[in-house]
Write a structure and sequence with these properties.
heterodimer, A: 283 residues, alpha/beta, Rossmann fold, five-stranded parallel sheet, two-stranded antiparallel ribbon, 9 helices, 42% helix, 12% strand, globular, B: 335 residues, 20% strand
C-alpha cells in the first residue's frame, strides 16, 4: 500500500536518524550526501521501484544503481527498512570482514552493482536498459548520481549512448546539492547549466525539489514512451535535516562528535514533532 | 605452404616450419569473429559490443548477419566496458571487443570495478594486441595488459597461440561465464596442435618434450619458441615447449615440472618484461624453492623500436634465431 507524503516525511526522519546512528557507530561515512539523497531513496524504495527482497532476482525487477556510491549509508538504512536484511547487521558497517563496506557491493542483499569510483553507474545502467529493450521487458533502470560526479567524462559517454539507443526505460537522478568535498561545484569545476547539457545530449529533463515527495514521485515515473532517457535534476541540500550540517561542505564525510550527534537528533526530533502537529492541523 | 611475404618468419624459420609440417592458418582475430558468429547464431543472448571497432575486430559479417546482437557504442571504451557489464548483469553473454591497448588502459577502472569486482561475467576481447599495430607506435601497443590485469582479482587472462586454441577458448568462455580477458593479434598463425588436442583455460599445452631447455611461451610467440626448439634439436639439444595460453590462473604444476626437469627455462611473451608471464613464472619457481637458470624474453622497458610486428619481434629476439641464441647462452651457464 502506498504511503502518503506525510508518512514518507516521517520515514525520512527515521532514516536520517538511523543513518547518523550507524555512521557514528562506525566512525565513518558520507554524512552530507547521504542526508541530501535520503528523500530520493525514500521515494524510490517506498513508491517507485518494483523490487523487493522476494523479487530481487527476478529478471523483471526494476534496477537501482547508486553511482554516487559513497552515500551508501543512506542506501543501507533504506534497504534494511525494506526488509532486504536486518538493520542490526549494520553494527558491522566498515568493520573487519563485514559485507557492509563503505561503498555498495553485491555482497549486500538488494545491491545491483559495486560502485564507489565515480562515473561508472550510468554506463552500467545503459547496459541494463539496452538488455531490457532487447528482451522486451518493462523494467526501468534508475541511476543516482552526484552533481560533482558529473565531472567524470564517462558519464557523458554514457549519456550519449542512452539517447542514441532511445532508452526511455532509463531514469538518471542527479542529487544536485551543489557541493562537493572541496566546496561549491561551480567553483571547483562548473558543470552548469546541467539541464541544458542533458537536453543537448538528447535527454528528457525534469528539475524538481529533491526534498518534495510529490515532485519526486511525479518525475520518477515516465508517463509515456518518449523515446528519450529521462534525467531528474533533484535540487537538494547537502546535510538536509541537520541544522549545522546543511549546505556545509565539510560534512561531506564528517562524522559528528557526541555533542554534535545530540544536536542532530534534537533537530530531527523537532522536525518530527512539527510533522505531528501539521498532521494534527490537517486532521 | 610457406610463410607469406612480409612474414613474421625468416626464410630459415619458414623452412623449419615446413620441415615440421606446420600449416599456415588464419589470424586468431578472424577465428574469433567466425567462432563468435557461430555461438551467437545459436543463442540470441550472445552480444558483441564494439567501440567503432567492428572492422578491426573482423565483425563486419557478424553485424550483417545478426544486427540485433551487436551493440555499437562509438569511440568510448570506458562506456563500452560499463555498458557490457550492465548487459551481463541482465543475463546477456557479452563479448566486449576493442583494441587491447584502449580496452585495458583507458577502460581499466571499468574492467576492475564493473566487470571483475562486480562479478559481471563480460568476455573482454583485446584485439590487435601486443605490438600487432606495429609502426603505429606505442599508443597502439598493449605491452602492459598482462601486468595490469593479472593484478585484478576475479579476472582471467588468456592469450591463445593458434587458431585451435582461439576457437576452443572462445567456446569455453561461452559456457564458463567468468570475467575473462582474451587477447588476439592480427597476423596469420601456424596451426600448432593435432586435431585431438585438448584445450582448457588454466592448463598449458606441451608441444614438445625435452629436458635441456624449456620455453614457456604465450600467444603469438609460441610458434617462435617451437621453431627455436626444433633448430636446437638439430644440435642434439632437447627442448620442451609449453603453450602457456592462460596467464592467469597459471598452470603452476607445469611450470614447476619444467623448473625441476629442465636445465634452463626461458619465458617468451609479447609483453613488457615487467609484470607478465615471465615474472609470474619466476615467482612460481622461487616460491617453490626451485632455482634454475632463467630468462624472460619479452619487450624491454624502453621506447619500443619502430617497425612492423615482425620487425619488433626480430629486434628483441622473439624469433627462432633470437630465442635459440638466448637458450644456447643460458645453457652454457647451466653446465
Amino acid at each position: 500500500m502506498s504511503l502518503t507524503d506525510h508518512e514518507l516525511a516521517i520515514r525520512s526522519i527515521q532514516y536520517r536518524r538511523d543513518m547518523l546512528r550507524w555512521i557514528v557507530h562506525a566512525g565513518a561515512g558520507h554524512t552530507g550526501g547521504g542526508l541530501s539523497c535520503m528523500d530520493i531513496l525514500n521515494v524510490l524504495y517506498n513508491r517507485i521501484l518494483r523490487v523487493s527482497p522476494e523479487t530481487f532476482t527476478s529478471p523483471d525487477r526494476d534496477r537501482y544503481i547508486q553511482s554516487k556510491g559513497h552515500c551508501v549509508e543512506a542506501l543501507y538504512v533504506v534497504l534494511a527498512d525494506r526488509g532486504f536484511f536486518s538493520s542490526e547487521k549494520l553494527q558491522t558497517m566498515c568493520g573487519y570482514d563485514s559485507a557492509f563496506v563503505g561503498h555498495p557491493t553485491r555482497a549486500v542483499p538488494g545491491i545491483e552493482h559495486n560502485t564507489g569510483a565515480l562515473g561508472h553507474g550510468l554506463s552500467v545502467g545503459v547496459g541494463a536498459a539496452i538488455a531490457g529493450k532487447k528482451d522486451q521487458r518493462d523494467f526501468r533502470v534508475y541511476v543516482l548520481m552526484g552533481d560533482g560526479e558529473l565531472a567524470e567524462g564517462s558519464n557523458w559517454e554514457a549519456a550519449m549512448s542512452a539517447s542514441h539507443y532511445k532508452l526511455d526505460n532509463l531514469i538518471a537522478i542527479v542529487d544536485h546539492n551543489t557541493l562537493q568535498i572541496t566546496g561549491r561545484t561551480r567553483d571547483v569545476c562548473s558543470n552548469e547549466p546541467l539541464d541544458e547539457k542533458f537536453k543537448a545530449f538528447g535527454w528528457d529533463v525534469h528539475t524538481v525539489n529533491g526534498h518534495d515527495f510529490g515532485q519526486l514521485t511525479a518525475a520518477l515515473i515516465p508517463s509515456t514512451h518518449t523515446g528519450k532517457p529521462r534525467v531528474v535534476i533533484a535540487n537538494t541540500i547537502k546535510g538536509q535535516g541537520v541544522s549545522f550540517m546543511q549546505d556545509v561542505a565539510k560534512w561531506h564525510h564528517g562524522v559528528p562528535s557526541e555533542a554534535e550527534y545530540a544536536i542532530a537528533l534534537r533537530d530531527l526530533a523537532d522536525a518530527e514533532a512539527q510533522l505531528g502537529q501539521s498532521k494534527g492541523a490537517v486532521q | 605452404m610457406s610463410a607469406p611475404a612480409g612474414s613474421m618468419y625468416s626464410p630459415e624459420a619458414a623452412a623449419m616450419a615446413s620441415k615440421l609440417g606446420l600449416k599456415m592458418g588464419r589470424a586468431n582475430l578472424e577465428v574469433f569473429a567466425a567462432t563468435l558468429l557461430e555461438i551467437a547464431r545459436a543463442d540470441r543472448n550472445v552480444l558483441a559490443v564494439t567501440s567503432d571497432s567492428r572492422g578491426s575486430g573482423k565483425l563486419g559479417p557478424f553485424a550483417q548477419a545478426l544486427p540485433d546482437q551487436i551493440v555499437e557504442l562509438g569511440i568510448a571504451e570506458q562506456n563500452l566496458v560499463g555498458v557490457a557489464a550492465g548487459l551481463a548483469s541482465a543475463g546477456k553473454l557479452v563479448y566486449a571487443v576493442s583494441p587491447a591497448c584502449f580496452l585495458t588502459a583507458r577502460a581499466l577502472e571499468q574492467v576492475k570495478n564493473d566487470v571483475a569486482y562486480s562479478d559481471h561475467p563480460v568476455q573482454l576481447i583485446g584485439i590487435s594486441a601486443g605490438v600487432s599495430y606495429g609502426a603505429l607506435g606505442s599508443t597502439h601497443h598493449s605491452l602492459h595488459d598482462y601486468a595490469a590485469l593479472r593484478a585484478i582479482n576475479n579476472l582471467e587472462v588468456v592469450a591463445p597461440a593458434d587458431n585451435m586454441e582461439a576457437r576452443a577458448i572462445i567456446r569455453e568462455c561461452a559456457t564458463r561465464r567468468v570475467p575473462t580477458y582474451i587477447r588476439f593479434g592480427k597476423a596469420p598463425l601456424y596451426d600448432l596442435h593435432a586435431a585431438d588436442t585438448s584445450v582448457e583455460i588454466g592448463k598449458s599445452i606441451s608441444l614438445t618434450t625435452g629436458t635441456d631447455i624449456c620455453f614457456i611461451a604465450s600467444g603469438e610467440t609460441v610458434t617462435h619458441a617451437l621453431l627455436a626448439g626444433a633448430a636446437m634439436a638439430e644440435n642434439g639439444i632437447t627442448a620442451r615447449v609449453l603453450s602457456m595460453h592462460t596467464i592467469k590462473p597459471l598452470d603452476i604444476p607445469a611450470i614447476l615440472a619444467a623448473g625441476r626437469e629442465c636445465r634452463a627455462v626461458i619465458t617468451v611473451e609479447e609483453h613488457s618484461v615487467h609484470g607478465g608471464l615471465g615474472e609470474a613464472c619466476a615467482a612460481a619457481l622461487m616460491q617453490a624453492g626451485i632455482s634454475v637458470p632463467f630468462q624472460i624474453a619479452a619487450i624491454p622497458d624502453e621506447h619500443t623500436v619502430t617497425g612492423s610486428q615482425a620487425d619488433i619481434f626480430r629486434h628483441y629476439g622473439i624469433s627462432m634465431e633470437g630465442l635459440a641464441a638466448r637458450a644456447n647462452s643460458l645453457l652454457k651457464r647451466a653446465t
